[in-house]
Design goal:
The chain has 438 residues and is α/β, with parallel strands linked by helices. The chain has 14 helices and 17 strands. The longest helix is centred in the N-terminal third of the chain and has 18 residues. This is Homoserine dehydrogenase.
C-alpha cells in the first residue's frame, strides 16, 4: 500500500522533532498505522537544517504554507506554526480542500476550535490536537476516550512548565520571581516576552480545551478566569511552606450545581498532595471521575520530542481512520456535536474556594480584631492565623490568614473593606486554596 503523504507547516522546535520521530521510528509507526507515512512537502520561512535529524527524508521544502494545503497529493496537514493567524486560515483552507489536520496549536483550538470542528464535520475530515495540551502527556485521549464511562467531576493541572519551574526555584532556593524569570528566559523555558506563560494565558488555552472535553460544553476561552504568578513574592512561598502548603499555578475545571468553573491562578495545595510535588518544567493533570476516582497524568509538557510524540500519535490515529465512515469517528470534543450542553461557565465571583491572605498592617492593639470582624461580617471564617514579629523600630507587621471556603464575591468585598482601613498599608495579597482530595 502506498505511504500516506503528509504536509508539514513549520520546522521549528516541534516541527523538527516531528521530522525526527517520523523518520527514526518509521517502521514502528507503519506497523501501528497499517501504512507508511512520509512528509512529502514542508513549508517554513526560517529553520536550521543542521538541527533537524531526518531532513533529507522530506520530499520538498518551500516557504509557502498555502502551497502545501493546496497540494492535491497531500492527505494530511500538520500545522505547527502556532498563533491565531495565519494558522486559522491555513487549517480552514486545508479542511475546505478535504485534508485531515493535526495541530499542536492550543491557542488556535481554544479560540477558534468551534469553527474549525464544524468545518471539519461538514467536510468529513478529522482534526487531531493531542499535542495542544501538556506536550507528550496523552490527556486529550484520556478525557475523550479512556474516561468516556465517567461523569468527570473536576480537573486540576500544572499545565505550564515555565511557571512551574519559576515557582519551584522560588521555593527551593528562596529566589525572587524576577530573578528566576530571567534564568528561565536564558535557559529557553520562557520567551523574550513571557506574558503568555507567567500571566496564565497559555494555561487558560489548555484548560479551555480540557474543560470542553470533560464536561461536553463548547470551547469558551473568553470565559476562563486567568491570573498569573508575577505577583507571588518569595515571602508567600515561605509562609505557605510554614503552613504546610506549596504554591502551584493550576488550571482548575470543576462541575458544580450552578455551572462550570474554568479558572487559572496561583493555588495553595497541601504539601502531601501529588500535584504539590510536581517540580521543575514537568506537567501533571489530575482528573477525578465518579467511577474511576482520581487519576494522574504526568510527564514532559513541552520540548521537541515529547510534543512530537503527541503529534505523531494523532497522525497514526488519522491514518487509521482514513477508510472509516466519518459518522463513526470519535467526536472532536468527545461528545456528539448535537449533545454539547449549554451549561454556563461561572464568573469567578460565583466560585467558592478557601483563601490565603497576607496583610501588612499597623502593629497596634485592635487592628487584628477589626480585620477579623470585617471577615466575620462577610461570613468568612478563619482557619489559621500567623503573625510575624516586627523588626526593631518597625511599626507595621505581616499577618497571614487561612480562611474556610467562601464565595469569591464575598471575599472581594471583605478585601476592599480591609484595604480601606488606615491601619493597612499595602494591598492584601490573596491566593486561592484547594485541597484536591479524592
Amino acid at each position: 500500500m502506498e505511504p500516506v503523504k503528509v504536509g508539514l507547516l513549520g520546522l521549528g522546535t516541534v516541527g523538527g522533532g516531528t521530522v525526527e520521530v517520523l523518520t527514526s521510528n518509521a517502521a514502528e509507526i507503519a506497523r501501528r498505522a497499517g501504512r507508511g507515512i512520509e512528509i512529502a512537502f514542508a513549508a517554513a520561512r526560517e529553520y536550521r537544517p543542521e538541527s533537524i535529524n531526518g531532513l533529507d527524508r522530506i520530499g520538498r521544502i518551500g516557504d509557502d504554507a498555502f502551497a502545501v494545503v493546496e497540494d492535491p497529493e497531500i492527505e494530511i496537514v500538520i500545522e505547527l506554526i502556532g498563533g491565531y493567524s495565519p494558522a486559522r486560515e491555513l487549517v480552514l483552507k486545508a479542511i475546505e480542500n478535504g485534508k485531515h489536520v493535526v495541530t499542536a496549536n492550543k491557542a488556535l483550538i481554544a479560540k477558534h476550535g468551534n469553527e474549525i470542528f464544524a468545518a471539519a464535520r461538514e467536510r468529513g475530515v478529522v482534526v487531531g490536537f493531542e499535542a495542544a495540551v501538556a506536550g507528550g502527556i496523552p490527556i486529550i485521549k484520556a478525557l475523550r476516550e479512556g474516561l468516556a464511562a465517567n461523569h468527570i467531576e473536576w480537573i486540576a493541572g500544572i499545565i505550564n512548565g515555565t511557571g512551574n519551574f519559576i515557582l519551584t526555584e522560588m521555593r527551593d532556593k528562596g529566589r525572587d520571581f524576577a530573578d528566576v524569570l530571567a534564568e528561565a528566559q536564558a535557559l529557553g523555558y520562557a520567551e523574550a516576552d513571557p506574558t503568555f506563560d507567567v500571566e496564565g494565558i497559555d494555561a487558560a488555552h489548555k484548560l479551555t480545551i480540557m474543560g470542553s472535553l470533560a464536561f461536553g460544553i463548547p470551547l469558551q476561552f473568553e470565559r476562563c478566569f486567568t491570573e498569573g504568578i508575577s505577583k507571588i513574592g518569595a515571602m508567600d512561598v515561605v509562609y505557605a511552606a510554614e503552613l504546610g502548603y506549596r504554591i502551584k499555578h493550576l488550571g482548575i475545571a470543576r462541575r458544580s450545581e450552578t455551572g462550570i468553573e474554568l479558572r487559572v491562578h496561583p493555588t495553595l495545595v497541601p504539601e502531601r498532595r501529588l500535584l504539590a510535588n510536581v517540580d521543575g518544567v514537568m506537567n501533571a493533570v489530575l482528573v477525578k471521575g465518579d467511577a474511576v476516582g482520581p487519576t494522574l497524568y504526568y510527564g514532559a509538557g513541552a520540548g521537541a520530542l515529547p510534543t512530537a510524540s503527541a503529534v505523531v500519535a494523532d497522525l497514526v490515529d488519522v491514518v487509521r481512520s482514513l477508510t472509516t465512515d466519518p459518522n463513526n469517528r470519535v467526536p472532536h470534543l468527545g461528545f456528539q456535536p448535537d449533545a454539547l450542553a449549554d451549561t454556563p461557565v461561572l464568573r469567578i465571583e460565583e466560585v467558592e474556594t478557601a483563601y490565603y491572605l497576607r496583610i501588612f498592617a499597623l502593629d497596634q492593639p485592635g487592628v487584628m480584631a477589626r480585620i477579623a470582624s470585617i471577615l466575620g461580617e462577610q461570613g468568612i471564617s478563619i482557619e489559621a492565623i500567623k503573625q510575624k514579629e516586627p523588626g526593631e523600630g518597625e511599626t507595621y507587621v505581616t499577618m497571614v490568614m487561612l480562611t474556610h471556603r467562601v464565595l469569591e464575591g464575598r471575599m472581594n468585598e471583605a478585601i476592599a473593606r480591609i484595604e480601606a482601613l488606615d491601619s493597612v498599608q499595602e494591598p492584601v495579597m490573596r491566593i486561592r486554596m484547594e485541597t484536591l482530595s479524592g
